[in-house]
Design goal:
The chain is mostly beta strands. It has strands spanning 3-7, 10-12, 18-25, 33-39, 46-52, 58-60, 68-73, 78-83, 92-99, 110-113, 117-121. It is built from no helices and eleven strands. Strand 7 (68-73) and strand 8 (78-83) form a beta hairpin.
Length: 123
Amino acid sequence: QVQLVESGGGLVQPGGSLRLSCAASGFTSLYYVIGWFRQAPGKEREGVSCISRDGGGTYYRDSMKGRFTISEDIAKNTFYLQMNSLTPEDTAVYFCAATKYGLGLNSYEYDYWGQGTQVTVSS
């Protein structure tokens, strides 16, 4: 059973940065892509970025390129989302999730989800 636990959310001022963490356990070789998603109040969940655990690459939603960076610490089985130049529009609950379908940001292809961590960007 894959388990994912997010952390690192909080309140940050516009223009600030946060690094989210996703601690993963229970992986099998099938679930080799980790994705980050977010959901703002009243909006649909949207994909942010994903990474292949075998060094197979990364993928970003176009609007996130240049501001967000996904990475992993293989030894710790932990995945990160570095978020820079944050704006109030980035306010959302951020989730990490695992899929066996390869790089992509279709939420229906992700089988395992963490509980989410709240990010609030406000002055």
